[in-house]
Amino acid sequence: MRSFASDNNSGVHPLVMEAVVRANQDHAVGYGDDPWTIEATIKIKEVFGPAAEPYFVFNGTGANSVALQAVTRPFHSILCAETAHIYVDECGAPAKMSGCAVTAIPTPDGKLTPELIRPRLHNFGVCHHSQPKVAYISQVSEMGTIYTIEEVKAIADLLHAHDMYLHMDGARLANACAYLNCTMKQLTVDAGVDILSFGGTKNGMMMGEAVIAFRPEIAEDLQYYRKQSAQLASKMRYLSAQFVPYLENNLWLENAMRANISARKLAEALSLYPQIRFTQKVESNQLFFTIPTEPLKKLQEEYFFYMWNEECNEARLVTSWDTTGEDIARFEQSLREAFEGG
Fold first, then answer.
1. pLDDT tens-digit readout, 129-170
2. How confident is the model at residue 221 (pLDDT cuts 50, 70, 90)?
3. pLDDT of residue 1
C-alpha cells in the first residue's frame, strides 16, 4: 500500500535496518551500557554540541512526557499552540505525567510567537494560579509550517527573561533544517532551545527518539523521569544503534530533502486546479488544502489520507523519504481523473 496519509507509514531506510541487524550480535549489557548507545551518544554530541545529553526512549509521546517532566513541577503550566501534539494527539499523557496544566493558545498557522505568549505570562508568585514554566513548540508545526532560527530565538529570549524553558518537539526537525538550509544545532541549542524531543521515525528510522537536554540542571534527573515513565529500554542497543547511520553522512538531511521535494511536486500538481486552495504554506513535507466534494471522494477511493477539517473539506497529504516519482505521477493521474469526472 502506498499512501500520503503520514510519514509514520513509510518504511525503514536500508542503512538503518542494517544497523539494527548489526546490533543483533552476541550479548550486550542492557539499559544503555553497550557500545551502540555510547557511539550514538557521541554522534549526537557531534551534531548538537558537547552540552547535549541524550536519553533514548521508545516513542514521541514518551519523549515529550519525559522532557516536560524534566522542566516542570506539578504546580507549573505548559504553554502550547491549540493544535500542538501534546494537546491534541497524546491522550493527555504529558499533562497526566507532569501534573501540569496545559494552556492552549490559538494560532493561525500552528506557530507560537512572543506576541501570543506574552499575555499568558502573568500571576507569577501567586499561589492561586499555575505558574508558567515552559513553552512547547513543534518543529515542523502540526500545520506543516516552520519556525525560522530567528523566530525560535525570539521565543527563547522571552521565556528565559521570565525564568522559563523552551521545549522543542523535533519529530520533523530534519524537514525544517532541509527547508531552512541550516544545521540542527543552529535551529535548536544555538537558538535557545533548552530541551529537545529528537525523532527520526518519520524520516527513515524504525522506532525510538532521544530526549536531549542542553542544560545541566535539566539533564540531572532525566534518567529518573525516563525510568518512571516506562521509557527505559532494557535492550537499548536496538533503539540507539539507529541514530548512528541516521546522523552519519547527513542521511537525516538527504531523507528530509527527498520528502520536502516530493511535497513541492505534489503542491505543483494540486496548484493546477483553481478549485483547490492551500490553507497553509507548503514549507515541509505536509500539504493542507481544501478540495471540492466530488473530486475528494474519487481521490479517497484510491488513496488513504486524513481529513484535517471535514466541515470545509480540508485535507492533509504527507510525503515521506521514500516517496517516489512513480507515486507522484500516479497521484497526478488520479487528480486528472477526479476532476474530469467531477
1. 999 999 999 999 999 999 999 999 999 999 999 999 999 999
2. very high
3. 65
d(CA 1, CA 62): 28
171 closest CA partner among 216, 211, 218: 211
Judge whether residue 341 has pLDDT over 90. no
Q: Do the bridges between strand 306-309 and strand 209-213 make them parallel or antiparallel, or are there none, so unpaired?
A: unpaired
313, 296 Cβ separation under 8 angstroms: yes
pLDDT band at 340 (very low <50, low <70, confident <90, very high): confident
Three-state DSSP state, 71? coil
Cβ–Cβ < 8 Å for 314, 308: yes
Asked if pLDDT for residue 342 goes beyond 90, the answer is: no
Choices 1.10.760.10, 3.40.640.10, 2.40.128.110, 3.30.565.10: CATH for 20-249: 3.40.640.10
Q: What is the pTM of this model?
A: 0.96
Per-residue pLDDT tens over the stretch 296-337: 999 999 999 999 999 999 999 999 999 999 999 999 999 999
Helices vs. strands in the chain: H and E counts, helices first: 16, 11
Query: Hey, what's the cell of 300?
Result: 479517497
Q: Per-residue DSSP letters for 257-308? A: HHHHHHHHHHHHHHHT-TT-EESS---SSEEEEE--HHHHHHHHHH---EEE
C-alpha cell at 4: 500520503
Please give the pLDDT value at position 142: 97
Q: Are strands 165-170 and 195-199 parallel, antiparallel or unpaired?
A: parallel
Which residue do the cell numbers 523519504 mark? 321
Give the sheet arrangement for strand 76-81, strand by strand.
53-57, 209-213, 195-199, 165-170, 131-138, 76-81, 101-105
Domain residue limits, the chain: 20-249, 251-341
Instruction: Provide the Cα torsion 287, 290, 292, 296; round to 10°.
Output: 40
Domain 251-341 matching CATH 3.30.2010.10: the answer reads: no
Task: Round to the nearest angstrom and report the end-to-end CA distance of the chain.
Answer: 25
Q: Which residues pair with 131 in a beta bridge?
A: 76
